[in-house]
Structures are given as structure tokens and as C-alpha cells.
Amino acid sequence: MTVTWEESGWEQLAPGVGRRRLPGWDCTAGIVVGADGVLAVDAGSSLAEGARLRTEARELTGRRVTHLALTHPHFDHVLGAPAFADAEVYGAVGLDVALAGRGREELSADAVRWGLDPAAADEAVAALVPPRHAVSGEWTLDLGGGRQALLANVGPGHTAYDLAVLVPGDPEVVFCGDLVEESDEPQAGPDAVPSRWPAALDRLLRLGGEDAVYVPGHGAVVDAAFVRAQRDALAARFGVSE
């Protein structure tokens, strides 16, 4: 690596695994480094932010990002994706449809509603290419040198297209997207599926186990107890029976 984790502004979670809390909406971007490939998890809220993440990843690893996993189709996680034009892009089944047609108009409008500059929103949406690889169950990426990352379609919940990323190791790291939020109460917009959200968190807990590091879409990293408490709170909030 050409710079250290501390110098880069990224938080190291496990050997070769880290994340960055982005300004503005406190959205998380992740990185998983293998001997042959580099996986980015989410891409930021604009082309400029995506380009910064791409540059920082290269400075940190000495290599380009080869894979990009999008955890769900909200603007603060996907609008930077066109900056990773030469990466293989993955999303939950149906994400390609959600990011096409009228979905693109809604994505741009949502970004502007939350405060993104309209020109930046339009630029990013115009350049956005839907994911090439659709994950229906689980998909294991081999990044080389014994490094693997498991992409798991665990939704619906926060949206209809929730993808988690499990990185085996010591500790195991689970990138949760916005199925888990630490810095605020989980946001349930019109595209949420509240009746299925607690079950999605049960799936995350089965994937990671008690000793994993869980990385929310927004906020500080948490443990299994936090995820379980948030699962119970969501079940109570939405009237979902056990």
C-alpha cells in the first residue's frame, strides 16, 4: 500500500478491509483488498465523490478497483458508480431495473430533495450504468491470495434490493448498507418493505455471527447486539410479529 490507513482517512476494520465515512450524509463506502482484485462497497453520492473514492482506493492499495458492490439504489450510495467505469458492478436482482427508466428520474429528484446540486445529480444519473451482475442468492468473489467476499441478497427491507457484503477473516466484517444505521433511526421511505426488514436483519446476524464487525450504511461500526436491538425495534415499530 502506498499510504497507511491513518494517512488515507480510511478506518481499518480488519487486515485488508476498511471503510470511509463520507461527508454530507455520513454515508459509508467500503474497500476489500485481495492479491488480485479490489472490491469497493458503494460509491458515494456524486461523480466527484466517486472519483475521490476511486483515487483514494488506488493510493491505499496501489491498484485500481476491480469490483463494485452496490448495497441498494439510493442516491448517496450509487451516484458515484460511473466513476468506476472499468469495474465489474454487482447488485441485488432487480437493481438494474430500479436504476433504469422512471427510476432514474426518481433517483435524481430524491438526490436534489436531499440537497445535492441539481446539475451534479443530472450528470451522475445520465452517466449511471445499471449493474452487470445480478445477485439472487449468494455470490462469492475471489479477490486472490485467499481473500474472498460473499455478496448476499438479504432483502427486501430498507429497499426491495438490499445487498450485504460479508468478508471472512478475524474479525469477520459485514457491510450492511442501510439495513442498519447507527447515526440516526433507520429511514423507511416509500420503497421500504417494513414487513420483511426484521427478517433481513436476522439474515445478517446469521451471516456474520456474534463476533463480526457490522458496518452500517451511516454511522459508527456496531456489534451483533446492536443489530439485534435494532431488529427488535424495527419489528415493534412496524408491528411485525416474531
Automatic annotation (TrEMBL):
Instruction: Quote the CDD domains the UniProt record gives.
Output: metallo-hydrolase-like_MBL-fold (cd16282)
Domain named Metallo-beta-lactamase is located at: 26-218
- SUPFAM superfamilies the record matches: Metallo-hydrolase/oxidoreductase
Q: Which PANTHER family match?
A: ACYL-COENZYME A THIOESTERASE MBLAC2, METALLO-BETA-LACTAMASE DOMAIN-CONTAINING
Name of the protein in question = MBL fold metallo-hydrolase
- Tell me the organism's taxonomic lineage: Bacteria, Bacillati, Actinomycetota, Actinomycetes, Kitasatosporales
